[in-house]
Amino acid sequence: MPGMALGSAEAQRLRNIAILRRVHDRIDREYATPLNLETLARDANLSVGHLCREFRRVYGEAPYSYLMTRRIERAMTLLRRGDLSVTEVCFTVGFSSLGTFSTRFSELVGVSPSLYRRDHSQAAVGIPPCLAKQVTKPVKNREARPR
């Protein structure tokens, strides 16, 4: 019966991946809402530790890091657009503190939100939307180009 155990293990692995995909999709959809790891884990019927380990294994980063990246990507888009203040962008993308937003933005992008808004308002002009996301994607500060 070893084949059955392998089939059962494979079925469980696929169920886990499906659960993680739902968490991933939820973060993509609800990034601007007050999401936290406890809520994500509880709604997926997983412990916080298991969710974090498995999410990192499957997607290469922790769920909280992924959430912050989504929020900062959206903030970058809104800041480039230029019709909202930094404070308005902060709250629009789901942060509840301007200080936390500015710190995370600077860590991921390498410059403050206000400096980014001033210097990158035209960053994606003329670039097709399918490529603009790659060009303007935030990176971890240690990967950011020196300015």
Structure description:
The structure is a single chain. The chain is built from eight helices and no strands. The protein has helices at residues 2-30, 37-43, 48-59, 63-81, 86-92, 98-109, 113-119, 129-136. Mean pLDDT is 85; it is low at 141-147. With 147 residues, it is an all-alpha fold. It starts with a helix and ends in an 11-residue tail after the last helix.
Arithmetic mean pLDDT:
85
What's the Cα radius of gyration?
Answer: 18 Å
For the secondary structure, the number of strands is 0
Low-confidence stretches: 141-147
- The backbone outline, from C-alpha atoms, is elongated
Secondary-structure content class: mainly alpha
Strand content: under 5%
Element-level helix/strand string:
HHHHHHHH
Q: Sheet bearing the most strands, described?
A: none
Fraction of residues in H or I helices: 55-70%
Distance between the first and last residues' Cα: 61 Å
Annotation field: number of helices? 8
Secondary structure topology:
Blueprint: H1 2-30, H2 37-43, H3 48-59, H4 63-81, H5 86-92, H6 98-109, H7 113-119, H8 129-136
Helix pairs in contact: 1-3, 1-4, 2-3, 4-7
